[in-house]
């Protein structure tokens, strides 16, 4: 977009509406039109990119979810077949159960993060920066690398965790390779990875609480524990609500850890615990890019979208019961 | 004075938890310097054995140099492009008046509410039809456009004082001059916050690179490292060396730009 076309169009517009009182050079109408053209020019790159790579694909995915794909390309309209198939698919059902279980377990990170944020938020505590850095380290570490390291820690025969347990006389399971423990072991990694992130948000939330509330509570004779429950927690509840919405959305989309720990296709199926590890997005990846069943994969991901909307809506409804806005 | 004593309990809990946070990293480093037989000894030894050749093995098993370069270029391309393009749109939404502004902003925001997996199949089809699979373009281009970046920077621009702009406008500066010479320098903290977030997400991104670049030489580190798992499941020392090499660059950037990382996350509260 050049300035010339901008002023030409502006002139055309001014001629159409000649009543504009000339305030600055060129008149207000012309100035407005030029400003509008600059506005469109500035949003055009991102706007076109979003339309091509994001907005149009939403509609396409919705369409694909009603088609069946041949292995060598081409697709035929099948209506709601993929959805009825999805509702009857035991593998998808199990993936949904795993994902919801992982999401629920992941919420444990919220109270943990609040407690650690409260510990770090004490006046005059030394070494806050060091603790914060150490807690935050897993947040910036590549999830695939995190998964590799934890797989090694969880190793049934040579893993550090089972060695430590053996010192206490306990024979540990093989964790991510054992159907009974796999999901919990995965959730522990998730919590370990996200604790520092939640902590930072809560710490910022706590620091935004005005000191006067604490001073008033002190005058009323409230001790530190009472202050935490009566002042900090209620005033932090909007932050906790926000973190829980974000963390549920994130957990419902879990993929990296599972893919890095279990792989996909035949490799994954070699792991006896894989049925307990597979998440909805992993199933989507597998159907879309391993078995090339893209119509079905599209239906999976549309259902995931609806699930995310539903879970978020439920949380917004429940917030009335526990979130206090000061 | 009860304060110093009162903190002893807090330090005890914090130190114990810090150990839990750090142990996986320490064990990763120790294991990466062992032989395979050393790593699988029971009881395990807590001393590294100085087997630096494990790091060399990573380069033999993977085209690690290529993958490293791909990851650097993808991260740089997405970060620079996304921050530039998002800041332009954000400036327009924050300061310029044009018909349909509110509606268009709403349309931009709608992208934020959709899980990213919903875009993947059509995006892949676009890459396929353009012949961009297994190229750097496939890694970078969809990542140049971000509703999140526009939203974040628009909020930032809205919070900036208008006086400088007004003065510049009276001096005859057009929107481009104002955007480039006044808004961008003023918005530096916001641009840095967005940059560190995009950098972190791009470096660690797995799903999209895994889907579009399947040729080992065109892979990113994330996908390459994940492929190492499948091929050599038992060689944990090499796997630990590889995962350390892949994750270290962002950890190093984090240590240097810690304040920006933490402020970026605290202010936006969104994770990738």
General description of the model:
Chain A: The chain crosses the membrane at residues 37-56, 100-121, 133-153, 182-204, 233-255, 295-314. Chain A: It is found in: Cell membrane. Chain A: Belongs to the binding-protein-dependent transport system permease family. Chain A: Residues 1-27 are annotated as: Disordered. Chain A: Residues 96-315 form the ABC transmembrane type-1 domain. Chain B: Keywords: Cell membrane, Membrane, Transmembrane, Transmembrane helix, Transport. The complex is a heterodimer of chains A (326) and B (272). Chain A is mostly helical. Chain A folds into two domains: 3-55, no CATH class; 84-322, MetI-like (MetI-like fold), CATH 1.10.3720.10. Helices cover 74% and strands 2% of the residues of chain A. Chain A has a two-stranded antiparallel sheet with strand order 1-2. In chain A, strand 1 and strand 2 (75-77) form a beta hairpin. Residues 1-26 of chain A have low confidence and may be disordered. Chain B has 272 residues and is an all-alpha fold. Chain B has a single domain (63-268), classed as MetI-like fold. Chain B contains 15 helices and no strands. In chain B, helix 11 (188-204) packs across helix 15. The longest helix of chain B is centred in the first third of the chain and has 32 residues, at 64-95. Chain B starts with a helix and ends with a helix. At the A-B interface, helix 2, helix 5, helix 6, helix 7 and helix 9 of A face helix 1, helix 4, helix 5, helix 6 and helix 8 of B.
